[in-house]
Design goal:
The complex is a heterodimer of chains A (about 300) and B (about 280). Chain A has helices at about 1-25, 35, 45-55, 60-70, 85-120, 125-140, 145-155, 170-200, 200-210, 215-250, 255-265, 270-300, 300-305, and strands spanning about 80, 85. Chain A is mainly α and about 300 residues long. With about 280 residues, chain B is mainly α. Chain B has helices spanning about 10-35, 75-110, 110-125, 130-140, 145-170, 175-180, 185-225, 235-245, 250-280, and strands at about 55-60, 60-65. Chain B has a two-stranded antiparallel sheet. The longest helix of chain B is centred in the N-terminal third of the chain and has 37 residues, at about 75-110. The chains are: A mainly alpha (about 300), B mainly alpha (about 280).
Chain lengths: ~300, ~280
């Protein structure tokens, strides 16, 4: 187990290092990133000061090592536009995005799991293909369109729900659905294939032969054994939700990390954009690591394959 | 799954099969012949006909899907928007596919150090959520048609690399590959002549599904103002305008979004059907 943990942990660290490197070099594609890091109103003196801070007069390798050092200290820099440390700015937005992601996850699980199960149980019948059609429709739905259409119907025409902003539970409903649709499709598909796999196994056949009813078969046997892939996909979905939040938050003026990213691009506040991208990558890497470890606890065979 | 499903009428199944293909063909037709089909010049403004309802008539010309905040015809802009969506998606699938397949096949065939380095690189790219990677890169490079294609390819090549790598690993040990090697065929020749034709099926499935995703990404970037720049009609930027007028002019956001949805849906349906036929291997 220790060997497994060390190996997976080491891989995660390499990935973190790689992501930091990638983000550094992407910013250097155009050569001089000073213009990106300063607002358009910056004076020549600001530009010179920024150049000195970044050490742009030094060789690329030295700049890179400097950047790595900052990252190792979790020093994300300072936003010139908002005149605050990037860390503060980001931390203040995290709760909003977490709320939205949690809402989306609830929507995805509550609808996705039953749909997937139903598809598996009706496999080969026409109804299964219709459900698959619905799932594919959810997967093909641009979040910004489904969001705007919901605003149109429930916000403007019916006036049931507020069309933007935050604060109450009713504000959370539409953004959660818009963001959750894509994950819903993923959950439905994963559940379907997991349950179909389980259905072919001997223990299900013997349970059926013993006269176990459908309800009991599903709750006691099928769902329980299909949960592992469903749990592990949640790790991946977390990073999808964070990325999807960029668009959903823009549509609903939801003041989370996504809206922050878009506003920061418009304001040329690039240090903030960079921090959000790094955060997104780290969440992905560590969620995968956590899923791997959980998986190995649930199913010890995984450890042997290292 | 499909082989067993015979208890419904064959014409329904055929309809299921053909409508995504016909829809895709129609949109492709729009993309190519848009300038001839569209009733108006998509960029022509008419400030006297701003925000008019679908079906509005002015001097004998009908705005079938209404007009936007500058009096431009929404139908003509939707038709012209197909060009941007389809060409960006198509070109980025080709570019990211070629790079990804080359990397994946090289890693799977050469093994050893190049395998480790290349596949680690793939893992690193995959650990940054694609849309965030696209956003940061476009913010650096600046928006525009070519840059959007480059950025989308940069973010998506690892997906093909993964599939090509896995497929190459299984094919590379087949006797005919060993035989070709023994007969003195070079590595590039083996990869192109012997391995590629045998892994092209699963790659095609990935490419079809990726096409839908690329359409969504392009529209997403345009929606955020990072895609193809105005006044060029793109569905994403039309939706972004439509968001601001959702209370007064619902048609501005509704129709480009519908076109977008149908395009992505038909690509996904075709991809899904292909993967049922060709078998698994994408992932």
């Amino acid at each position: 187990m220790l060997r497994f943990l060390l190996q997976r942990g080491g891989q995660a660290l390499i990935a973190v290092f790689g992501v930091v490197t990638l983000v550094f070099f992407i910013q250097r594609i155009t050569g001089d990133p000073t213009a990106l890091l300063l607002p358009e109103t910056a004076t020549q003196a600001d530009i010179e000061a920024m150049r000195a801070t970044l050490g742009l007069d030094r060789p690329l390798l030295a700049q890179y090592i400097n950047f790595l050092g900052d990252m190792a200290h979790f020093d994300l820099g300072r936003s010139f536009v908002q005149n605050a440390s990037v860390e503060e700015i980001i931390v203040s937005r995290i709760p909003e995005t977490l709320q939205l992601a949690a809402g989306a996850l609830v929507v995805a699980l509550l609808i996705g799991l039953p749909l997937g199960l139903l598809m598996a149980l009706t496999k080969g019948r026409f109804i299964s293909r219709w459900i698959m059609g619905i799932v594919l429709a959810c997967q093909s739905m641009p979040t910004f369109w489904s969001g705007i259409m919901m605003i149109l119907v429930f916000g403007v025409w019916l006036r049931w729900l507020p069309s933007s902003g935050t604060g109450t539970l009713s504000h959370l409903i539409m953004p959660s659905i818009a963001l959750g649709l894509l994950s819903l499709a993923t959950y439905a598909r994963i559940t379907r294939s997991a349950v179909v796999d389980e259905m072919g196994k001997d223990y299900v056949r013997s349970a059926l032969a013993r006269g176990v009813g459908t309800k009991r078969l599903v709750t006691k046997h099928l769902m329980r054994n299909s949960l592992i892939p469903i749990i592990s996909i949640t790790a991946l979905e977390l990073s999808q939700l964070l990325a999807g939040a960029v668009i959903v938050e823009t549509v609903f003026a939801w003041p989370g990390l996504g809206l922050l990213t878009v506003q920061s691009i418009a304001a040329r506040d690039f240090v903030v954009v960079q921090a959000v991208v790094l955060l997104g990558a780290f969440v992905t890497i560590f969620a995968n690591l956590a899923a791997d470890i959980l998986y190995s606890i649930v199913d010890p065979r995984v450890r042997l394959s290292v | 799954m499909l082989k067993k499903a015979k208890n419904y009428k064959p014409w329904l199944s055929a309809a299921f099969y053909w409508w995504p293909i016909s829809l895709l063909t129609l949109l492709l037709f729009f993309a190519i012949f848009g300038s001839w089909i569209a009733p108006f010049d998509p960029d022509r403004q008419n400030l006297l006909a701003r925000l008019k309802d679908p079906g509005f008539e002015a001097r004998g010309a009908v705005y079938w899907l209404g007009s936007d905040e500058l009096g431009r015809d929404v139908l003509s802009r939707v038709i012209h928007g197909a060009k941007v969506s389809i060409s960006v998606a198509f070109l980025s699938v080709i570019l990211s596919g070629s790079v990804g397949v080359a990397v994946g096949m090289a890693a799977g065939y050469l093994r050893g150090w190049s395998e480790t380095i290349l596949m680690r690189l793939v893992d690193i790219f995959l650990s940054i959520p694609a849309i965030l990677l696209a956003i940061i890169t476009v913010a650096v490079l600046g928006p525009g048609f070519i840059n959007v294609i480059l950025v989308l390819s940069l973010t998506r090549w690892p997906r093909y690399a993964r599939v090509a790598y896995g497929q190459t690993l299984t094919i590379a040990n087949r006797p005919y590959v060993t035989l070709a090697h023994a007969m003195g065929a070079s590595a590039p020749r083996i990869l192109v002549m012997h391995i590629l034709p045998n892994i092209v099926g699963p790659l095609l499935v990935v490419a079809t599904l990726e096409f839908g995703l690329m359409v969504l990404f392009e529209a997403g970037l345009s929606f955020l103002g990072l895609g193809v720049q105005p006044p060029t009609a793109s569905w994403g930027s039309m939706l972004s305008t439509g968001r601001n007028y959702v209370g007064s002019a619902w048609w501005i956001a509704t129709f480009p979004g519908l076109a977008l949805f149908l395009l992505v849906l038909s690509a996904n349906l075709i991809g899904d059907r292909l993967s049922d036929r060709i078998g698994k291997g994408h992932g």
